């Protein structure tokens, strides 16, 4: 049996909703002559939108057929019943005239489904831990993308300090290429026409990329490179500042964006702006709680936590663990001569030099003032002589300050932990006592505190 033998309007559709074939009744339903060309019918069907979304729903559905309502002509309501066809990746859609009541009910069901989706996505974004946020954003993009049957959904964020924009999050339908790796660190002025729209809080809604104005040269070139046929982009604001934008792409076939898509994307942009800003603030607060504001090094709280973990580690696996207390020699002269701003810059230089000496996994922390602590783990049983020599050598070169240079010395107290016996406070007390002995012995040197047997 062929489509022309069926007593109903019938459409044979591809995976993305594109028209493969239809009968004369289907052409009539679209308001076309029965002998209208396949191209004309495909264009008319694509202009309705919603088919790709319906097929995506059919693919995910537990039972078939899936039914949707369309309005091919003003006041003319049609119900499509979609089920899998014989050949893999094809779908058969049978159409019949629908009633106004059916149309209202279908739109209500769709609206309720959309509201449930938004509520679920919002809850997931709000609950996401910092290391889960990116996955939660991509999941939200995917949920909306599948709901509306589009091919690609994405987020761009703006870095005003670097004057760049980057595609930070992306979801794509099966068989559609990812593009985020090609869209990192782009200059803010790379898409001037689009950026001017976003700054005016306007959406870019293009059913056909060919409809771009002549001055959108860069935009046209990029959309064609990505194979985009239709594109919808909305700005993402936080307060009075444009933070980026969120977009939908139709790649496999052009679509007509309806008001539901625009509303959905606006809502998503608002949700993401709030959530991303909240996470950014939380990161700043965590950094202030556990890091020194001046040097960016771990503070006492984080250092003591890492020292506790390191002490537990040497109980499980024998290895050496040294704690070094470091006090700067000659730092008071910097503040007295050049002022506290210069002193702050010297402390930042000292922090960088201490970090350069240690290996990955070791810790440099600032306790406050000109006091630093180093946690050094080493499976090679480093000697105190090797550790002290490396630290002092890092300060052989003078430190630049206010157009001049000053020599900074280190008084270092070293204490080696005893597995199963030392606690953080005891180990710090021993290293501190050794540091004062080094300072009393003439400064710019080190002393070792040996545990009492």
Automatic annotation (TrEMBL):
<dbReference type="InterPro" id="IPR003018">
    <property type="entry name" value="GAF"/>
</dbReference>
<dbReference type="InterPro" id="IPR043128">
    <property type="entry name" value="Rev_trsase/Diguanyl_cyclase"/>
</dbReference>
<dbReference type="InterPro" id="IPR029787">
    <property type="entry name" value="Nucleotide_cyclase"/>
</dbReference>
<dbReference type="GO" id="GO:0003824">
    <property type="term" value="F:catalytic activity"/>
</dbReference>
<dbReference type="Pfam" id="PF01590">
    <property type="entry name" value="GAF"/>
</dbReference>
<dbReference type="InterPro" id="IPR052163">
    <property type="entry name" value="DGC-Regulatory_Protein"/>
</dbReference>
<dbReference type="InterPro" id="IPR029016">
    <property type="entry name" value="GAF-like_dom_sf"/>
</dbReference>
<feature type="domain" description="GGDEF">
    <location>
        <begin position="319"/>
        <end position="451"/>
    </location>
</feature>
<protein>
    <submittedName>
        <fullName>Diguanylate cyclase (GGDEF)-like protein</fullName>
    </submittedName>
</protein>
<dbReference type="InterPro" id="IPR000160">
    <property type="entry name" value="GGDEF_dom"/>
</dbReference>
<dbReference type="Pfam" id="PF00990">
    <property type="entry name" value="GGDEF"/>
</dbReference>
